[in-house]
Amino acid sequence: MRIGALLGITVGLAACAEPPTSITAARMLGQQASASAAVVSTKLTRNYSRMLQVSCANDGLGEMVALSGQIEIQTHSSEDANGGVHLMTLMRPSQVVGVGLTSGLFYRGTGATFENEGYAADGYPAVLSSVNNFRIIGQGPGNNLLVHMTVHQTMNADGELTVDVDLSSQECK
Which of 97, 121, 139, 141 could form a disulfide with 83 if both were Cys (CB 3.0 to 4.6 A apart)? Predict the structure, then answer.
């Protein structure tokens, strides 16, 4: 089931980072909850440090890039009047920079991941949509790694997967 797998990847990304450096609860702007709905919004920043292979770097020979910085994670969850749960998550790199271990060139991490999930009170029907755009931008031509992923899944009231869209691409520029 991809819904669980994608959630696992997202949680794994957050878990690979260091413990939160700040947590601030705040209501998302423009979101009004009904009197019976429970609403929780959070914003946290996690330290990020990772080695990543950039295959198009170093004149196409590839190289490992040591990246570090922070990942900002914003979540907004609510419960509707029927007990259904709705979750929106936005993750984006903040001040993520790196250096190529072979070339010594500098890189920066950009992009964002947006997820939107909705579950009925008993778990079904369920909908998951996720768009991930991740970029490692290097100095000079041909050192940019661009990753895009779009996932959309819908499960009906019986828990059967009825829609499954999984589009992903990786490009060097």
Answer: 121
Q: 7 to each of 12, 26, 39, 72, 153, how far by Cα in Å?
A: 8, 23, 20, 17, 12
- What does pTM read for this prediction? 0.73
- Confirm whether 168 is domain-assigned: yes
Domain hosting residue 78, numbered range: 2-25+40-172
| Cα separation values, 35 from 11, 25, 79, Å | 30, 19, 11
Q: Which of 88, 6, 93 has its CA nearest to residue 41? A: 88
The 10s digit of each residue's pLDDT in 42-93 is 999 999 999 999 998 888 899 999 999 999 999 999 999 899 999 999 999 9
